[in-house]
Amino acid sequence: SEDLAVTPEGEVKNIETGETVTDATLVGTQDQQPDPLAKTNGESFIPVSAEDVKNAVADANVQLSKFEGNEYGAHWGTHNNTKAFFDYQNNLFVQQAKGVIDVSEWQGDIDWAKAKADGVEGVIIRLGYGWGNNADRKAQRNISECKRFGIPFGIYWYSYADTPSIAKEEGAGVVAKLKRFGVRASDLAYPVYYDLEKWTWKGHQPPTDPNVYNDIVNNWYGALQSAGYKNLGVYSYTSYLQGPLKHADIYAKTTWVAQYGARMGFDSFPTNSRGWQYTSSGKVGGIRGNVDMNAFGNKEYVDKNNSNNATSYEVKGDMGVEWRSIGAEKSVIGKPIANEVCDWTQGRVNCYQNFENGAISWTPSTGAHYTTGTIRKEWARRNYEHGVLGYPIEDEKKLSNDWKYQRFQNGDIWSHGTKESRIVLYNLRDSFYKNGGYSSLGGPVADEENMGR
Questions:
Q1: Based on the domain organization, do 190 and 215 belong to the same domain?
Q2: Residue 397 lies in a domain
Q3: Looking at the structure, do residues 207 and 314 belong to the same domain, yes or no?
Q4: One domain, residues 220 and 367
Q5: What per-residue confidence (pLDDT) applies to 451?
Q6: 283 and 429 in one domain?
Q7: Whether residues 99 and 153 fall in one domain
Q8: Which of 40, 41, 178, 179 has the most beta carbons within 10 angstroms of its beta carbon?
Q9: Which residues of 430-451 are buried (b: 16+ CB within 10 A; e: fewer)?
């Protein structure tokens, strides 16, 4: 921020006077999170240490200048006869690219007709931040206008979660607001993003342990997925991803990254499609002041008409959303090895598709969920969906001490390591959760026994 800095202890200071900032609109209160964009008058920014800035300037022997657009050389061009975005050395970031902006109430009432005419091809709309707060004051208007003008859009939610339980509350709040604003999963051309940044909030500290953050992300994901929103992603900036967010499972969900510089420093994108927020100082018709600009597209060219390789197996509909949400070809199940198989008989509607290391199953009532590894082997031993368990109703979840479990219609499958697996059915499952579940009882170490009667 031009005027403010944050100490290692999380205090916000006025740069000129050195005084601690106490304005609740900037730092919040013990019980209320502040709007994270208030500190910078609505502009996004990537936090860096003062020492890093000094060292970079000294090494490069350059003069500081006002950041206007991406003056470091990242630029638009063409590749494979498609619109593309490159870093300063002409290294391709994405082709088949779209110019996307992200907006909040800080952009005011946007003239979306002018914005679309000025080249806006997509929008990521802020829905809100934290938990227990009202929605972004322009979210409903921005969503409605994007629908009216046919502008593809996604959503982002800024997190203040420092525990998994709070992340679950944040997720529940997102679901409630999406439904209140009439946003169905099918409306979203871009994901619902979980915005993870090093926040400042009076009396609170952000997590520093990647394992804690992973649990936070999984709880938020769970809340969205259980409500039918499967097209999800993580947004952050490179230095945070290489610090508190440095976890393989978080990387597997990170598809939108901020980097205001010459090149993209994050190189672990899990999918072919990705986005680079390359400046916070963009100018677009219909918007007063600055706006964040992004390049979204594909690293490798996607030829939808090509049927000569593994990518010819299209993963469609809800199963496609599920596959992309877990990391697509880099996910635990890998690439598709066959086309989907569906039964559209009335009363028996279902689909499945096989992948290198598992499969995705779908029904209208259960949604699309993958199965893999030890859990899938146990499900197969129980005759898949035709057996006592039925279809999966949630994705596999990881717990401590190498335990995993997955919920099915009529019971759960638990696995410990790569060999041991158990099922917990019907009333015993309900009693297990009622009495504290894994946190109180641990994982099941034997199959149930039928005592008769």
A1: yes
A2: yes
A3: no
A4: no
A5: 86
A6: no
A7: yes
A8: 178
A9: eebeeeeebeeeebbeeeeeee
Residue 304 lies in a domain: no
Q: Which structural domain, as residue segments, surrounds residue 167?
A: 70-298
Predicted pLDDT at 199:
95
- Tell me whether strands 350-355 and 403-408 are parallel, antiparallel or unpaired: unpaired
What's the pLDDT at 148?
92
Q: What is the pLDDT of residue 63?
A: 34
Total domains, the chain: 2
Domain end marker among 235, 266, 298: 298
Does residue 377 sit in the same domain as residue 314?
A: yes
Residue 60 pLDDT: 46
- Spatial CB neighbours of 71, under 8 Å, sequence gap ≥ 6: 65
Residues 137 and 170 in one domain: yes
Please report the pLDDT score of residue 307 as a whole number: 39
CATH number at residue 201: 3.20.20.80
Mean pLDDT of each 10-residue bin along the chain, 453 residues long: 80 84 89 88 75 60 35 85 89 93 96 93 97 96 95 97 97 97 94 97 95 96 94 96 95 95 92 93 91 93 58 80 92 88 80 92 95 92 90 94 93 88 88 91 88 85
Residue 189 lies in a domain: yes
pLDDT at 61: 40
